[in-house]
Design brief:
It contains 13 helices and 17 strands. By secondary structure, the protein is α/β, with parallel strands linked by helices. Strand 15 and strand 16 form a beta hairpin.
Length: 415
């Protein structure tokens, strides 16, 4: 009887602890006079297992492996298994249960639907811009159809953009060869023969140089278009008349990361720049299992499992982060909003309902981050994962997962 009472008290204590995170997320207020640059390299459809530094054995990622040796590699970063829910959590610092975007906004079909960044949702980019950061975004913009909402990137907090305009004049466009790129409201007509990811990498480097010349701190979110479907030949393959492969697309993405990180170093801003690399959701592997040192990974994008939600996340800042370190803290995609603000020494707006919790103290002082579970959502299903047990809407309640079911119900009641 005594053992049962202790067990019940332990469960109650755990429930109160996790519920307090849901009801009133705490953020670490880091005071610093610095206004460092922040560069986010955000791969499209790339799970943790694709990188060699995570034990992956199928793809070549030497530049990302090198980045891991120069920075901090998070081993347990999680998100939703598809792009719109994941990116909404990133931009707004909220769980899927709050922002309610459980599926892809059909921009590829020319929808008039758009995320309301003017009146409904505040983004970290808006907060950083208001504090004096120059902000830019690239790549896939799936928050609205730009032909219908031409200033949507600006509404979301970005001064400048060079993004793939997915829909134009009644049809879906292409992202790779002969890309349809919208730069600051105009369709670029100088990239017909070029490879879209190369154009975006040029833009990122140009934006960094521009911010340096203007003596302003920058935030750049490089929404990398690779390695998302369709499988297409990379430049050398196209020149040789060969077919493309997921392997070559991941390898080319890795090369772009290397080129941009090298540019940061060559510009002399490495010690004042947070370089962050992560995926937006699991790998689109078309049913093929991936091999790692720890075994085979099956499934991926669209699965509310480890394969669909577990992403790579590497952070580098020489002189601040100890090279070659790892952290096993649980990180939720929503945590980046308050973390970005803390790293930029920007106060969080007091009127926001954020679910994310800042882990800036881990980055700045290498202090453990005590998050107890992470979330993900897809097709009106929400899941939570505590590092060992995963519970998804509709799962049966057992004595092992009862506490997580309580938390899940509380999340589904949030606004």
């Amino acid at each position: 009887m005594q053992h049962i009472s202790i067990l019940l008290l332990s469960i109650c204590f755990l429930y109160i602890s996790v519920f307090s995170i849901t009801a009133m997320p705490e953020t670490t207020q880091v005071t610093s006079p610095e206004r460092p640059n922040i560069l986010l390299l955000f791969a499209d459809d790339l799970g943790y297992e694709a990188l060699g530094c995570y034990g992956g054995q199928d793809y070549s990622t030497p530049n990302l492996n090198r980045l891991a040796t120069e920075g901090l590699r998070f081993t347990r970063a999680y998100t939703s298994p598809i792009c719109t829910p994941s990116r909404m959590s990133l931009y707004t610092g909220t769980y899927v249960s709050r922002h309610q975007y459980y599926d892809v906004i059909p921009v590829h079909k020319g929808t008039k639907e758009a995320v309301d960044f003017r009146n409904r949702w505040t983004t970290f980019a808006q907060v950083l811009r208001q504090s004096g950061y120059t902000t830019s975004v690239t790549g896939k913009w799936q928050m609205a159809t730009l032909e219908v909402h031409p200033q949507h990137c600006r509404d979301a907090g970005f001064d400048s953009w060079c993004v793939w305009q997915i829909w134009r004049e009644g049809a879906k466009t292409t992202r790779y060869w002969d890309p349809c790129l919208n730069q600051d409201g105009n369709i670029r007509n100088d990239v017909t023969e070029r490879f879209g990811p190369d154009v975006l990498a040029d833009y990122v480097i140009t934006q960094m140089k521009k911010a340096i010349e203007e003596e302003k701190p920058f935030f750049i979110q490089h929404n990398m278009m690779l390695p998302h479907w369709p499988i297409t030949p990379m430049p050398a393959e196209k020149e040789a008349g060969k077919l493309g492969s997921l392997n070559s697309m991941i390898s080319y993405m890795d090369g772009i990361v290397g080129r941009i990180v090298d540019a940061v170093d060559e510009l002399g801003i490495a010690e004042n720049t947070w370089v962050i690399f992560m995926g937006d959701n699991g790998t689109e592997a078309f049913g093929e299992p991936r091999h790692t040192r720890d075994g085979i990974v099956k499934g991926g994008k669209r699965d509310l499992t480890d394969a669909g939600t577990h992403i790579p996340m590497i952070v580098r800042r020489p002189g601040t982060i100890q090279p070659g370190t790892t952290a096993d803290d649980l990180i939720d995609m929503a945590d980046w909003f308050p973390t970005f603000c803390n790293l930029a020494n920007v106060d969080l707006p007091k009127n926001l309902s954020l679910d994310g919790i800042s882990f800036a103290s881990r980055l700045l002082e290498n202090k453990p981050f005590p998050r107890q579970w992470v979330t993900g959502g897809y097709l009106n299903k929400l899941s939570i994962f505590d590092g060992q047990i995963r519970v998804t809407t509709g799962d049966s309640i057992t004595k092992e997962n009862a506490t997580l079911h309580h938390v899940l119900r509380s999340l589904l009641k949030s606004d």
